[in-house]
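Entry:
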Amino acid sequence: MPFDYSPIFTQQAVERNDLVEEYFKLGFAYTEILLFLQCRHDIRLSIRQLKRILRVRGLKRRGNQENHMNVITAIESELNGSGSCVGYRQMHQRMQIKYGFVVARETVRIILKVLDPNGVETRSRRRLRRREYRGRGPNFIWHIDGYDKLKPYGFSVHAAIDGYSRRILWLEVFPTNKDPTYIARYFLDCIRQLGVVPRVVRADRGTENVNVCAIQRFLRADSEDSFAGEKSFMYGTSTSNQRIESWWSQL
């Protein structure tokens, strides 16, 4: 007997639910999620509908807490980078946005106090000691990175900054900042416009940087300084890419 098949979720519903999950993982409250959906995506939901979507996806604030060992590992990683300068409130926000963890703020505070007692004491006395950045000169090192906080609105940002002068070398907005072809194009266009190749490029280990890495090492292959060839491109964690991370924090 013929019948018409009707899926449980239409394509529009799936996209809507993905948006709900994305906003939830960014740490927004229910009312804020509803407001974003209505103002940015013209999607109207009730609180009951929102809670139903979250329940179906297994998303909970309290009953689905992240394993403490995962949280400890993430906080240790942050403390080795720019996280050494932040308090427990900002660290809690990083756990939510960067790692997608559901964890209580009090848990983060306790873990941070155990892992970094000296830092907690210093911050409580308002005697925070900032790390010093020292550049060797213009175009010695370029820092490149992507900015993902505007992705829920359809804007993927990518930028580069000169480590010494803090000059913004490029600032591009596109639907994606993960395509290595486009990142390499930004890099080559900048080199053509400035007429100079940086001695070192600093970036994280994302796949979007593989073409830039290959181009930079090729262009510097025949150089005779201590940063020639393989050493002309430096990989590292995004949080320790200090110069551009500092600039992102001002946006």
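The longest strand covers residues 141-147.
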